[in-house]
Structure to design on (354 residues):
C-alpha cells in the first residue's frame, strides 16, 4: 500500500515563515535573559509572527491563483531578508559609533516585521495585478467578439441576402438551386461563427474545474477526429498519463486542436500528438503537423493585443483553445515545426492528488 504523496502548497511556505519568526522571538527570549523588557520584545516578535501564521491559514480562500500565491510568498521572503539586512546594517553603524544595540532583537524584529509586511502587501499586490490581467483579458475577449460581429457576420449576411435577392427577382431556373446552395453555405458558416463566439463567452463565464486523465482524453478525441476525417493519419507518442484539473471545456479544446491539424492539412502530411511531463511536473500536450502552417494573422491575433484580421472560423477555434487553457492556469503556444508546419502546445498544471 503506497502512501499519498505530500504536496507542498503556498500556505505551507507562509506558515513556515511565520514559524521561523516565532522561533526567533523565543530564541531572543531564551538568550537575552528573563527581564520584563526582553519579555515584551519577545511578545512583540511572536505577535507579528502569529499574524503571518494567520495569513497562511486564510490563504487558501484568497481569490488568487496558485502561482500568484507562490509569488506573494517569494515577495514576503525577499522583504523579510531585506529588513533583516537593513537591521544588521543599523547595528553595524551603532557598533562603529560605540553605541550598544541588541543584534538578536533587531534581526528577529526586522525579520518578523518584514515577513508580515511582505506577505500582506504581496498578496494585495498580486491580487491587484491578477485583477488587472483579468480586465485586460476581458477587454481582449470583447474586442474579439466585436471584431467578429463587425466583419464575419456582416460579410456572410451580405452574401447570403444578396443571393436570396437574386432568387426573388427572377423566375426559377437552372441557376436557382446553385444560388440556394450558396446561400445555405454562407448561412451555415454564419451559424458556426455565432456558435463558436457563444462558446468562447461561455468558457470565460465558467469558473468550474473538472479532473481529466489526459491520455484517456486524448485517445477519445483522436478517435472522434479520425472518424470524421478518415483520410488523415494521426500518430501518437504518449509518455505517462498525467492527471489535470482544468476548465470543463478541455475536451472541446483538445478536439479543436486535433481538428485544426486534420482539417487544414493535406492527406500526405503527418499529424503527431505528443503527451509528456516537463521538468516542473506540468503536463504538456503537443499537436504537430508538417503542413503549410497556421496563417500569420491568426497567430498574431492570439499572441498580440493589437487588432488583426480575423476572417476564418479556424481563428475562433484557436481562441476556444486559448481561453480554455488560460482559465485552467495553463499556457498555450503556437510554434513553427521543423522543417514545415505548426506545433500547437498546451501546458497544464497537474492535479493535486486527493
Amino acid at each position: 500500500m503506497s502512501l499519498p504523496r505530500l504536496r507542498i502548497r503556498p500556505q505551507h511556505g507562509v506558515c513556515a515563515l511565520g514559524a521561523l519568526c516565532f522561533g526567533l522571538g523565543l530564541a531572543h527570549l531564551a538568550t537575552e535573559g528573563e527581564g520584563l523588557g526582553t519579555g515584551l520584545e519577545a511578545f512583540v516578535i511572536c505577535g507579528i509572527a502569529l499574524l503571518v501564521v494567520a495569513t497562511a491559514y486564510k490563504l487558501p480562500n484568497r481569490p488568487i491563483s496558485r502561482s500568484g500565491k507562490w509569488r506573494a510568498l517569494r515577495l514576503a521572503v525577499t522583504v523579510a531578508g531585506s529588513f533583516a539586512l537593513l537591521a544588521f546594517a543599523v547595528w553595524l553603524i551603532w557598533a562603529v559609533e560605540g553605541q550598544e544595540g541588541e543584534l538578536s532583537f533587531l534581526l528577529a524584529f526586522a525579520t518578523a516585521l518584514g515577513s508580515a509586511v511582505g506577505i500582506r502587501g504581496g498578496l494585495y499586490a498580486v491580487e491587484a495585478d491578477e485583477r488587472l490581467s483579468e480586465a485586460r483579458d476581458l477587454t481582449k475577449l470583447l474586442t474579439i467578439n466585436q471584431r467578429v460581429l463587425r466583419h464575419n457576420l456582416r460579410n456572410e449576411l451580405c452574401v447570403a441576402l444578396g443571393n436570396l435577392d437574386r432568387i426573388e427577382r427572377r423566375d426559377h431556373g437552372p441557376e436557382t438551386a446553385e444560388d440556394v446552395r450558396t446561400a445555405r453555405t454562407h448561412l451555415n458558416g454564419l451559424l458556426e461563427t455565432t456558435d463558436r463566439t457563444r462558446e468562447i463567452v461561455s468558457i470565460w463565464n465558467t469558473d468550474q474545474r473538472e479532473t481529466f486523465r489526459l491520455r484517456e482524453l486524448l485517445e477519445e478525441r483522436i478517435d472522434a477526429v479520425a472518424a470524421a476525417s478518415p483520410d488523415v493519419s494521426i500518430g501518437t507518442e504518449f509518455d505517462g498519463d498525467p492527471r489535470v484539473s482544468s476548465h470543463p471545456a478541455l475536451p472541446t479544446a483538445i478536439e479543436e486542436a486535433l481538428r485544426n491539424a486534420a482539417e487544414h492539412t493535406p492527406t500526405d502530411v503527418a499529424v503527431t500528438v505528443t503527451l509528456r511531463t516537463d521538468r516542473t511536473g506540468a503536463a504538456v500536450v503537443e499537436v504537430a503537423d508538417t503542413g503549410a502552417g497556421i496563417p500569420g494573422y491568426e497567430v498574431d491575433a492570439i499572441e498580440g493585443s493589437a487588432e488583426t484580421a480575423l476572417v476564418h472560423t479556424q481563428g475562433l477555434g484557436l481562441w476556444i483553445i486559448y481561453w480554455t487553457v488560460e482559465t485552467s492556469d495553463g499556457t498555450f503556444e503556437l510554434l513553427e515545426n521543423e522543417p514545415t508546419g505548426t506545433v500547437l502546445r498546451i501546458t497544464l498544471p497537474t492535479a493535486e492528488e486527493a
Q: What stands out?
A: DSSP finds nine helices and seven strands in the chain. Residues 103-169 form the longest helix (67 residues).
